[in-house]
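[audit] Reproducing an earlier prediction to check determinism. Same input, same settings, fresh worker. If the tokens differ from the archived copy the diff job will pick it up downstream; this log only records the rerun itself.
[audit] input (213 residues):
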Amino acid sequence: MANCKTRIWALGALFALALPGCVAYQVGGDIQKGRMELLYGDPKVALSYFERAAELDPNYRLNYAIFPEGVWTYVGRANYATGNLPAARTALERARTREEDNLAKVYLGLVLTREGDRDRGYKEIEAGLKGVYDWYDYTQFYSVEGQYWDPGKNLRRSIQSTLAGMSSRGSDSADLLQNVAMLGREIELEIDRARDDRDRDRMRKFHGDEMRR
């Protein structure tokens, strides 16, 4: 009887240790599936993945890239894409509490502008885009992975152009919102481009080391 209880306790302990890893794996998988739907498919499907991920781990932050983006930013972006502005605002304001999550600021600004609060909306968009720009600059100089992020500085030029357009008195809100949303998509795609370039570089170095042995 004692041995049986000991085995049950041991199995329970192993299960408790394995559970966090299983949850992290599921959350990461849901985020990636949601990202693909948000970028290429149905934002409503993306939202279902992001909401499940947020329920499992409300503090989740993208874990396979160094770009700082949290689960509530994804929830907010998916709601924005479906047109549910109140839900998008709630999620993005929650994400906004993390100062380093610059895409949360960008999309919160989009929501606020569409709701009619142009002054605050523009301030959020500007803060978010400047934050992304500065993050690319900092990463380029201070991270070993910096060489893979916006290497041609195309995104930084687009950010500068967008910010310049926002400062123009004659800027049209509808056009601006469309441009910022497209830029936000490109910033998201850069996560995958940087990861792919990094992985290819590592693979080339690995095969080069193997050839020299």
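[audit] rerun output stored. Observation attached for the diff report: The mean pLDDT is 88.
[audit] end
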